[in-house]
Write a structure and sequence with these properties.
Blueprint (H helix, E strand, L loop, with lengths): L2 H18 L17 H17 L4 E4 L11 H15 L22 E4 L7 H26 L7 H12 L5 E5 L1 H6 L3 H7 L7 E8 L8 E5 L1 E5 L19 H16 L4 E11 L10 E4 L5 E4 L6 H14 L5 E5 L3 H7 L4 E5 L2 H14 L3 E3 L4 H6 L7 E2 L8 H10 L8 E5 L24 H10 L2
Parallel strand pairs: 1-2, 5-7, 5-10, 6-7, 9-13, 10-14, 11-12
Antiparallel strand pairs: 3-4, 4-7, 8-9, 11-14
Bound molecules: ligand BES and zinc ion (2 copies).
The site of one zinc ion has 5 residues, from loops.
C-alpha cells in the first residue's frame, strides 16, 4: 500500500470503527502499488495472519476494498488474500502429548469475514474466499498426510484416508491391493513393494464434471510412504525426511479433492501408486529384472531409484485412459535438489502446448517453476544391458533428466505429458514462504495442478 492508500485506509477505518465497532486495526503495507502481484498479497496476508494469531485474535474482517484491484488482476488478488490466510492456519501438533498453545485442537480457527459496507467487490470477494478456502484446505490436507509419520501413513492407510476424504465430494475412488496390482501386470510397482511389510496400493480417483464425450486429464503422483532406499540403503542421516516421499501422491489426492469441491467442468483422473521401499528379505536386489504393465523390462540396478518404477506402471495405466494430457508429480531425484534448491520446482515436457499451459497455470497460482531440459540423448543412458531399460545410469550428471526420460518410456507417444520433480520443494522450505510451515510438508504443486484443471477447456 502506498502512502496515499494507507492514509485513506486510516480515515476510513476510523469511520468504520464508529459504525461497526471494530476494536483493533491492522494496517498492512504492500509496497509500491504498481508492483504489487498476487504473490505479494498472499505473503502479506500470511504475515498479517501470523501477527493476528500471535495476538490471540479470534475474528477478523478484511477490507478488500483497499487492495490495488484492477479488472485484470482482481480475481487473483482477492483469492491471494484468503489463500495467504488459510494456508497459514496449518499446524501439525497432534502427536504432542502436551498440547501447544497453537494446537489446532485447542485453538478454534480464526473467523474470517469480508467488510461488506462498501459496494462493488463484495460478490467477487465472497467467491474468491470460497475458492481460496477450498484450495488452501486441499493444500493443508496434503501437508497433513505428508507430515504424518511412515508408521501411521502407509499405503493401506493412504488409501483409506483418500476414500474418507472423498466421501460426499462426487469423486469415485477405486483402490487396488497388492494381489490386484500383481494380477494387473504392474510388475515394477509390485517389485518395489516386496521389500516392505505393508501391502502396496494403486489409488484411482475419478471425477466427471465435463461432457461425457470429453477426454479426461490425468494426474499421477508418487505415493512412496517411506523410502529407506531398499537394499541400496540410504545413509542414516536425514533418512526420516523420506516419509515425505509421498508428497507427489498427496498433491494429486489434494488436487482431486479441490477439483471436485470446486465442481470444475472437466473430466479428471488421479492415479497414485503407493508403496514402501524397504530392505526386507524379499526386496528387489540390484540387478533384478522386473516387467512393467506395457511389457517393458527394467534392470533394477539401484533399488533407491524406486519412484520411477512405481510411477511407470501408473503412467501405463494413465495412458490406457486415453487422456488429453498426463502430468505427474514426484519427489524423484536428489539431483533436482542440487540443481534448483528449494525455490523452484523443475518440470520436464516434450510438448510445447502443454508447457505453455503449465507456465500459465503457475503464473496464476503463484508457485515458482523452472522448465528443465530433457533430450533423447538421456534415454541412451537408461538402456539396459540385459533388459530393455535400467533404472539408473552409470553416467554421471543430469540425474533428474535421466529419471524423467525413463518415465517417458511408459507414456503413450501421442499423449502430451509433463513430469514435475518436487524433491526440492515438497518440504522444509517454509523459510522462503510465510504461508508455509518452516519445517514440514509444503503442499507444493496442488495450486498449479488445480489451475491446470481450471484452465482446461
Ligand atoms: N526419494 C528419492 C529422491 C529424493 C532425494 C527426494 C532427496 C527428496 C530428497 C528417490 O527415490 C531416490 O532415492 N533417488 C535416487 C536416484 C538415484 C539412485 C539414481 C537419488 O536421487 O539419489
Ligand atoms: Zn529412493
Ligand atoms: Zn523415493
Amino acid at each position: 500500500m502506498n502512502h496515499g492508500d494507507s492514509l485513506f485506509f486510516r480515515q476510513y477505518a476510523r469511520k468504520e470503527q464508529n459504525q461497526q465497532g471494530f476494536t483493533n486495526l491492522l494496517l498492512v503495507g504492500l509496497g509500491d502499488a504498481k508492483r504489487v502481484t498476487h504473490e505479494t498479497i498472499r505473503r502479506a496476508s500470511a504475515t498479517a495472519f501470523k501477527n493476528l494469531k500471535a495476538n490471540s485474535v479470534k475474528s477478523v474482517t478484511i477490507a478488500v476494498e483497499t487492495l490495488p484491484l484492477t479488472a485484470k488482476n482482481k480475481e487473483e488478488n482477492l483469492r491471494a488474500v484468503f489463500e495467504g490466510f488459510y494456508l497459514s492456519e496449518y499446524t501439525f501438533e497432534i502427536y504432542k502429548s502436551v498440547p501447544n498453545k497453537s494446537n489446532a485442537k485447542e485453538t478454534p480457527k480464526m473467523k474470517v469475514s469480508i467488510l461488506t459496507s462498501l459496494a462493488g467487490n463484495t460478490t467477487s470477494a465472497k467467491s474468491a474466499e470460497k475458492e481460496a478456502r477450498i484450495v488452501a484446505e486441499a493444500v493443508n490436507f496434503a501437508r497433513t498426510i505428508g507430515d504424518t509419520p511412515g508408521n501411521e501413513m502407509n499405503p493401506p492407510i493412504l488409501g483409506e484416508t483418500t476414500k474418507k476424504a472423498a466421501t460426499g465430494t462426487g469423486l469415485k475412488v477405486t483402490i487396488w491391493d497388492g494381489a490386484r496390482i500383481k494380477k494387473e501386470k504392474m510388475g515394477n510397482l509390485h517389485g518395489v513393494s516386496l521389500g516392505g511389510g505393508e501391502d502396496p496400493r494403486l489409488i484411482i480417483m475419478e471425477y466427471k464434471g465435463g461432457a461425457k464425450s470429453k477426454k479426461p486429464i490425468c494426474f499421477v503422483g508418487k505415493g512412496l510412504t517411506f523410502d529407506s532406499g531398499g537394499i541400496s540403503l540410504k545413509p542414516g542421516a536425514g533418512m526420516e525426511e523420506m516419509k515425505y516421499d509421498m508428497m507427489g501422491g498427496a498433491a494429486v489426492i489434494a488436487t482431486m479433492l479441490a477439483i471436485a469441491k470446486l465442481k470444475l467442468k472437466v473430466n479428471v483422473i488421479g492415479i497414485v501408486p503407493s508403496s514402501e521401499n524397504m530392505p526386507g528379505p524379499f526386496a528387489n536386489k540390484p540387478g533384478d529384472i522386473t516387467t512393467a504393465r506395457n511389457g517393458k523390462t527394467t534392470e533394477v540396478n539401484n533399488t533407491d531409484a524406486e519412484g520411477r518404477l512405481i510411477l511407470s506402471d501408473a503412467l501405463v495405466y494413465a495412458s490406457e485412459q486415453k487422456p488429453e494430457f498426463i502430468v505427474d508429480a514426484a519427489t524423484l531425484t536428489g539431483a533436482m535438489v542440487m540443481a534448483l534448491g528449494d525455490v523452484h520446482t523443475g518440470f520436464f515436457s516434450r510438448d510445447t502446448k502443454l508447457t505453455q499451459k503449465i507456465t500459465k497455470a503457475a503464473a496464476a497460482s503463484g508457485e515458482t517453476l523452472w522448465e528443465m531440459p530433457m533430450h533423447e540423448e538421456h534415454l541412451k543412458d537408461m538402456k539396459g544391458t540385459y533388459a530393455d531399460l535400467q533404472n539408473v545410469s552409470q553416467r554421471r550428471g543430469a540425474g533428474s533428466a535421466q529419471g524423467a526420460i525413463y518415465l517417458g518410456e511408459f507414456v503413450e507417444k501421442d499423449i502430451p505429458w509433463a513430469h514435475f520433480d518436487i524433491a526440492g520443494t515438497a518440504y522444509n522450505n517454509g523459510h522462503r514462504l510465510p504461508y508455509t510451515p518452516a519445517k514440514g510438508a509444503s503442499g507444493v504443486i496442488v495450486r498449479t495442478f488445480v489451475e491446470l484443471a481450471k484452465q482446461h477447456k
